[in-house]
# Entry
Amino acid sequence: MEFNNLNYEKEGKVGILTVNRPKVLNALNKETVKEIKEAARHVKEAGEVNVLVITGEGDKAFVAGADISEFVDLGLKDGFDFSRNFQEMTNVVENLGIPVIAMVNGLALGGGCELALACTFRILSETARLGLPELGLGVVPGAGGTQRLSRIIGKSRALWYILTGDFIGAQEAFEMGLANLVVAQDKLREKTLELAQKICTKGPLAVRLALHAVNFGMEADLQTGLVLEAAMTNVATGTKDAKEGIASFLEKRKPEFKGE
Ligand code: CO8
# Structure
């Protein structure tokens, strides 16, 4: 895949997508948002990787938000489409069908923080900071931030960070369950790939089904979620991967999953 603002590489069954606009701290202009959506769709359709990592170029920023220079001409009716375009990007990432790890190498602000919130996991370098500074610009965190931050850290805490614009340090983020792991900057890639490789040893179809059960079940009431869980379990038990996983256990060997 060739892009103007992204790099894409593969390490085995792990895809690594890097936002590459370091001069503006990897801020997302319209073209980059379009490219992230295209890259995510390609990853989904090609089925070549079992985990996707998203990160930013350099060691200063993951993504410092939407590109503010593109806000200048926004009028009354434009904000809705602008927001929905960013939401499409975060929705595609959240529902990719494979785990997506935000490898947060620095500042993740505004739309960058919202991109990280849509990922399955967030691994932060010790120097990383997250924040939703949009209200200071007179706009709203419109890339899913008002909804996803509240769901992850709770309504009251989310409102605190949205209304104050205070940045959240890496350790603080870990303590409130917003970061899954905090590591030294020079170990960030290694530890992220370690997690990605661990997930790659699991049955890929079961991974996908579990993601669906959690992502969609969480939005429903408990009994509906449990029925969804049972349906996902039923799909899983019919796969060749499940036969292989169970046989490998009984035969005391490692499973060889084919995603079938
Ligand atoms: N957009 C455009 N350019 C940016 C952005 C950005 N978000 N962030 C940084 N840059 C540019 C700077 O303008 C600067 O460019 P130049 O060298 O040409 O002056 C360069 O990157 C380096 O930045 P700084 O010199 O400012 O670096 P500092 O270390 O001094 O400061 C900060 C770093 C604190 C990150 C500072 O750059 C900053 O505050 N940036 C803006 C952060 C921000 O407010 N992000 C949220 C944007 S709004 C958003 O994301 C909304 C998404 C949802 C859609 C909403 C619908 C309306």
